[in-house]
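Observation: inputs received (chain + calcium ion).
Thought: call the complex predictor directly.
Action: predict_structure
Action Input:
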Amino acid sequence: MRVLLVEDETRVAEIIACALREGPGYAVDIANDGRTGSDLARDGVYDLIVLDLMLPMMNGLAVLQGLRRRGDKTPVLVLTAKTTKESTVELLNAGADDYLGKPYDLGELIARIKALIRRGKGAASPMFRIRDVEINTLEKTVTRAGHLIELSPMEYRILEYLVHRPRVVVSKRQLLEHLYDYNWERHSNVIEAHISNLRRKLDGDSEHSYIKTLRGHGYCLTQANKERES
Ligand code: CA
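Observation:
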């Protein structure tokens, strides 16, 4: 997953980015003003945008309104110092998916970001099952028939990205754009190695491969059924 963080306080931005990279393992791009944030968001490669309201060049509300006017449906979580009823209504009407008043708890922010990303992909439950493989996106663990499969952080991130897009073919470029920050082109050669390792670990001695390669198109998880929430 790749997150755009629009926050002018560089130290705060670094703390949040660090927590997202080290916790859920997301790629994070930072914009320190509204104009840059708005420009980066145009690329449409983000799975979520964290948007501060008070920003230089262009305020957060204008960034959000511009985004929604263009028909961009990327989930947006707004960070705001004012949480009066009026300001909250204005934010939600402008198309914010969630907001958090300052000062906020970093753990709560990360939890809300993860929940919004899940919901944005149409998955309310953090648990996924594909045949006998289970993926727990809260614990970041993967098991097959109850046995833990050890994945490298990048192998896990690839699997998590694919599992949120059941029965959809994901191109190599799409994977690169969503799993790495703006330097993604540098990683173009290693992604295939990560996928082949991931496939080997998932498949074990199973007859059917969990990851299908469609030559020239990309990759697809087979029979990725969302687990029902109990
Ligand atoms: Ca600010």
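Thought: report the result.
Final Answer: Residues 8-9, 52, 54-55 surround calcium ion (CB under 6 Å). Residues 224-230 have pLDDT under 50 and may be disordered.
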